[in-house]
Amino acid sequence: MSKVNIREIFLSVQGEGPYVGERQLFIRFCSCNLNCRYCDTDFELSKSTEYSPQELITEINKYGENLVLSLTGGEPLVSVEFLSDFLPLAKANRHKIYLETNATLPENLEQIIKYTDVISADIKLESATGQKQNKENIEKFFKIASSKDTFAKIVFDNHITEEEILFAIKTAQTNNILIILQPKMEGNKFSVSTNFCEEIFDKFYTKYNRVRIIPQMHKFLNVR
Fold it and tell me: 109-120 burial by CB neighbour count: b if 16+ within 10 A, else e?
């Protein structure tokens, strides 16, 4: 039976994207296949707890019934073998699955997508993350994800390029998905001006109107 290291489990409100303000149980996975320069997550294994699928379900059920489980990280899809065992149990216990992912592992998504309800998928910009984009993988990922309630989250700063904007728009248009623009934060402050946010929003909106700009609201609310 597969096992996985979970950094933390906690109830809070969703602070990002179109489901902002929704009550969710956050389950933070430790592993990640990227190393984004703005990442502020502590993945130290010594601070984590190892769970089997049944052990994790038992722990989750202590928080209540019919929960929205936000699988976050790290990158949950790195642990696809565990998810293949865990997600059927979660659905059998009537929990809703909200997957937060960096959209770089399409083959892994394909293995477990039938168990997901909402997919929050980043389009990681090299200008913001320092990680080179694999455009083919991203396109493949969103093609698979588009069968579900999926939106693309784009964290940007003042280094965003026209090429990145056009690629993100093309990916969203092809798959008819919502784009959430998220200004990169420094603590609880924007790393860019509000005028720049409006300028970037307009660059997207004039080419594709399924776009919203939503900052990380949990930082303003001072909740996790």
Answer: beebbebbebbb
